[in-house]
Amino acid sequence: MQIKVIAPLAAAALILGACTGDAGQKQTAGTIIGGIGGAVIGSQIGSGSGQLVATALGTFAGALIGADIGKSLDRADQLAMRQAEQQAHSAPIGDQIVWNNPDSGNSGSVTPVREGTNARSGAYCREYQTKVTVGGREQRAYGTACQQPDGSWQVVS
Fold first, then answer.
1. Can you give the three-state secondary structure of 109-129, one letter per residue?
2. pTM higher than 0.85 for the full model?
3. Which of the four, 14, 23, 42, 119, has the lowest number of CB atoms within 10 Å?
4. How many domains does the chain have?
5. Is the pLDDT of residue 100 over 90?
């Protein structure tokens, strides 16, 4: 049930990101990541229709916050963040991988918090906690990535 609710809300975050005009890929990516993170957090609140409302509000709030952060991340920030994500795929659970861009002042971290096997696909997956600080404002997101047969990783939630 939860996946059925989160998937349309993630699509709504994508559509909201597409409405930003010339804001660019940074803002769109921030909108999507924020929307998904907000949906996941919102889905943990309440039950029944209250949980659906909390998920929708979490998606919307996360998308707005993510879009704002995405606008502020430059190419060097994105590269540093991607390198931290790659290191986190093989880091021990609980190890915080930190990135920092002294030119922009932006920073963040990626911490693997749990690992396991996907029951349906059998893929090895890891859950991550991500922090990004832009302009002194810290934002947090949670997500899961699974290793693909070719060895690459794909974010699944």
1. EEEEEEEEECCCCCCEEEEEE
2. no
3. 119
4. 2
5. yes
